[in-house]
Amino acid sequence: MASIKEVAALAGVNRSTVSRIINGEGSFRSDTKRRVEEAMAQLDYRPSAIARSLAKSHSNMIGLMVTYYTGGFFGQMMNQVQLELDVQNKFLLTAQGHHSADGEKKAIEKFKDLRCDGFILHSRYLSDEELIALSKTKTPFVLLDRYIEEIKQQCVTFDHQKASALATSYLLERGHINIGCVTGPLGRVSSQVRLTGYKNAIAEKGIALNPDYLVEGDYELDSGYAAMAQLMSLEQKPTALFSTGEEMTRGIMKYCYEQQIRCPEDISIISYDSVNSCRGLYPQVTTLEFPISDMAHEAVLLLNAQLKAQSREQAQLSVSPRIQEGNSVINLT
Amino acid sequence: MASIKEVAALAGVNRSTVSRIINGEGSFRSDTKRRVEEAMAQLDYRPSAIARSLAKSHSNMIGLMVTYYTGGFFGQMMNQVQLELDVQNKFLLTAQGHHSADGEKKAIEKFKDLRCDGFILHSRYLSDEELIALSKTKTPFVLLDRYIEEIKQQCVTFDHQKASALATSYLLERGHINIGCVTGPLGRVSSQVRLTGYKNAIAEKGIALNPDYLVEGDYELDSGYAAMAQLMSLEQKPTALFSTGEEMTRGIMKYCYEQQIRCPEDISIISYDSVNSCRGLYPQVTTLEFPISDMAHEAVLLLNAQLKAQSREQAQLSVSPRIQEGNSVINLT
DNA sequence: GTGAAAGCGCTAACAA
DNA sequence: TTGTTAGCGCTTTCAC
């Protein structure tokens, strides 16, 4: 690919003139401009983003780290982030955390090697301390769906506890008392928080918690299937269910189908959903939307603000929970 | 971030010595090496991939272009590609074609601006001519799921026609005669090819094609739902169905559920599936696997070969179709 | 309005 | 085994 040098030579001007014309800085004789533009066209010239990065000590690249690419959830985030960066003519770099602290560390290292101007991190395995330490570094970053008090101005969060309570209340308000809850791996804080929301809503109604109704899954389809089997083997079966992950819900629905358990007649279901995946279930499951696109959007705005060293309203950075009604919940009252 | 200069200064050596130590080229006094390593550690030094790219006129970046990020299909590809590039310490850059020739052009432009060493393109909208023209360029690339005779050594393909015929035959062999087919947008070659496979299989059995059984969809859930409604309104309903896309199949199943059409008792279904998404349907739908991960794997190998200017066996580059049995097909014989 | 020259952080001859 | 020097392709002072 042609370099600026060749363009300059062909146009009979100095490299710096070409550079100025590319960047539209200053003014030039129209004749000069024309000659340079012709030369660029003729050589099919495109400035090297790499060389430019080096010269202006910023890369125009943003790193986006997620835990895994597959499953649709990531696609939503990435799509949103890419869309906005496209407008700003920035490059998006992605990396997977691979479900481990080490993987996340490596991903960030990669971003640093490429001198990304900023990161958006969906970090699950790095400790608060590590992230706080990272924040002392000069490269700005934003945490997606994670809250750390000390760096809260870099966090875009969703109140999972409140959201889970909302979902549970939705069932309670419709007369359900015996409500099951299928959680994610309880080793993760994010799963714990959802469970807490469920517990709170139950307690608020003065209902005693039945530990049999709590089943731990791993967010995968099979675990939902197994959880449902377990719940349906109980003597006192729940009349409703809160599933904290859409894939698990698919497993739950599959079990229902196979065992001829009717939803919502025999059991009502409400489920977390981040990618509108429950829309494809039959019956259509009522969901608690995990607004990952909105959050990704906020993350980009926030990162941009950090890059420009502006400050932004804290208020907008937490997205509110919303329920999307399907027909998987029956009203018992 | 510290530069090589600072490391050199701190260690009391020349920059090139540091460079050599980083790259493990040549041999050094153990004392020198130790001092340099200490300096690097102390400054938390990481070489700039950008500066390095410039110096060694190759970037270690690979561009992956897809039509869209959402939907899971892309995640599979990306995951596979990233995994392999990680091993080789290469950077992955991604871009969306946004369902237009212009979008695809822009994506490639972006890769070029960053001086990617090679591309993997899932191109749908650029013409054969444009792609052939691109192949005259110095940057090597591989076409994913697209065949162009003139540059076939750069193509990783899947025989959709054969695959579709296989799926249709699967139904025929089980005694089905009245087989519906839900296609993608017939404006796209990729949809046409699948339809041709279906037609061929039917014709081979000496069965006349019933045009009523052909319904055009757009690969989205809703279009599957609508297609099913249309097919079920026919006087002579099909006993089986070949769906050329998993999302459409979800719509089809949803319609069945709502209308109390039993699968497979009332209708048998076989479906394309690229992301194992039909596994979550109930009943579990028999699928024709679209082996996108395998293909992505092949694409990386092929691209690597091109980068090293090696040649590879053509034979491996076409992946064979495979059927994964569920319980959505009934045997009428 | 344009050119000359230095510099971004690194690598790669060529010497020593 | 190590240093010197030039150069990768661009931007950015500082002159003129």
From TrEMBL, chains A, B:
Residues 3-46 form the HTH cro/C1-type domain. The keyword Amino-acid biosynthesis does not apply. Keywords: DNA-binding, Transcription, Transcription regulation. Residues 2-56 form the HTH lacI-type domain. The keyword Nuclease does not apply. This is LacI family DNA-binding transcriptional regulator. GO terms for molecular function: DNA-binding transcription factor activity; transcription cis-regulatory region binding. PANTHER family: LACI FAMILY DNA-BINDING TRANSCRIPTIONAL REGULATOR, LACI-RELATED TRANSCRIPTIONAL REPRESSOR.
